[in-house]
């Protein structure tokens, strides 16, 4: 009974932990490696990670539901109803840019994903180094205030942000951090940078769930309840973390994430 209770607590904790760290620019994958190393937690495998990432995806759907609904309506309107006003055209281009931005991470992940994992592996000290790199990038953009909105984006912007997302295949490099940093360096407004970053997460996460869906369906029956707890914990934690990150950006407090990455990165290098 105690072993079963501990299993439930462990999965719920990891679901909440990964869910909370996924949207904010501190690298959920890197933190998961450090937590497992620190508490000697046995890895739950790729199926578990896909499941909790799907929970984070649902949280993104909830937060950006109005944007997603508008883009879907505009996309169908542009393609099938020949509705070509400025707003619809702008939204359709945004969709195209999201598709373009997805390509680099998808290609690099398929071709070099195993090599990246083999190089950086499960090393907590390596995560410490990449966290410091993330912190430096966040520090660089802490005071940037872009002036370009959704309608000012270009194919070049989408490709550069997509390449930044592919860098986040390295544990310790935050996906949201890398994409937001790239977008801000390109002169995009904070709202556009955040929107593009998190909507860019949608096709990547959906693709992963589709590819690994069979493995999730074949989950052993004794893990149904632990997985459900982790999944629900991930949704709730991701939702509040994403809302918090948006508020942090709005209040120009990104520097605190940089400080956090510096401190935790240094501690990981020294003690893990």
From TrEMBL:
Transmembrane segments: 45-64, 92-112, 124-141, 193-211, 223-242, 254-271
Keywords: Antibiotic resistance, Cell membrane, Cell shape, Cell wall biogenesis/degradation, Hydrolase, Membrane, Peptidoglycan synthesis, Transmembrane, Transmembrane helix
EC class (word): hydrolase
Reactions this protein catalyses: di-trans,octa-cis-undecaprenyl diphosphate + H2O = di-trans,octa-cis-undecaprenyl phosphate + phosphate + H(+)
EC annotation from Swiss-Prot or TrEMBL: 3.6.1.27
Bilayer topology: Multi-pass membrane protein
Compartment(s) where it occurs, according to its Swiss-Prot or TrEMBL record: Cell membrane
Domain of life: Bacteria
HAMAP family: Undec_diphosphatase (MF_01006)
The family this protein is said to belong to: Belongs to the UppP family.
Note: Bacitracin is thought to be involved in the inhibition of peptidoglycan synthesis by sequestering undecaprenyl diphosphate, thereby reducing the pool of lipid carrier available.
Function as written in the Swiss-Prot or TrEMBL entry: Catalyzes the dephosphorylation of undecaprenyl diphosphate (UPP). Confers resistance to bacitracin.
Protein's name according to its UniProt entry: Undecaprenyl-diphosphatase
Lineage, top ranks: Bacteria, Bacillati, Bacillota, Bacilli, Bacillales
């Amino acid at each position: 009974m105690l072993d079963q209770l501990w299993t439930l607590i462990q999965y719920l904790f990891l679901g909440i932990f990964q869910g909370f760290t996924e949207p904010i620019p501190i690298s959920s994958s890197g933190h998961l490696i450090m937590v497992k190393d620190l508490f000697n937690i046995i890895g739950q495998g790729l199926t578990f990670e896909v499941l909790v990432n799907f929970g984070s995806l649902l949280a993104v759907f909830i937060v950006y539901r109005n944007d997603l609904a508008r883009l879907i309506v505009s996309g169908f309107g542009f393609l099938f109803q020949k509705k070509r006003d400025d707003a619809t055209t702008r939204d359709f281009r945004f969709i195209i840019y999201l598709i373009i931005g997805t390509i680099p991470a998808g290609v690099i992940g398929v071709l070099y994903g195993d090599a990246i994992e083999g190089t950086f592996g499960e090393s907590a000290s390596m995560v410490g180094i990449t966290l410091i790199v993330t912190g430096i990038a966040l520090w660089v953009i802490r005071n940037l205030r872009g002036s370009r909105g959704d309608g000012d984006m270009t194919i070049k912007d989408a490709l550069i942000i997509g390449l930044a997302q592919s860098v986040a295949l390295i544990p310790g490099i935050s996906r949201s951090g890398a994409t937001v940093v790239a977008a801000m360096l390109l002169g995009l407004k904070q709202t556009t940078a955040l929107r593009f970053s998190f909507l860019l997460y949608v096709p990547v996460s959906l693709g992963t769930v589709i590819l690994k869906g069979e493995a999730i369906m074949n989950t052993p029956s004794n893990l149904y309840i632990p997985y459900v707890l982790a999944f629900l914990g991930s949704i709730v934690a991701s939702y509040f973390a994403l809302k918090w990150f948006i508020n942090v950006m709005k209040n120009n407090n990104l520097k605190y994430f940089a400080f956090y990455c510096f401190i935790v990165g240094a501690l990981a290098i020294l003690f893990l």
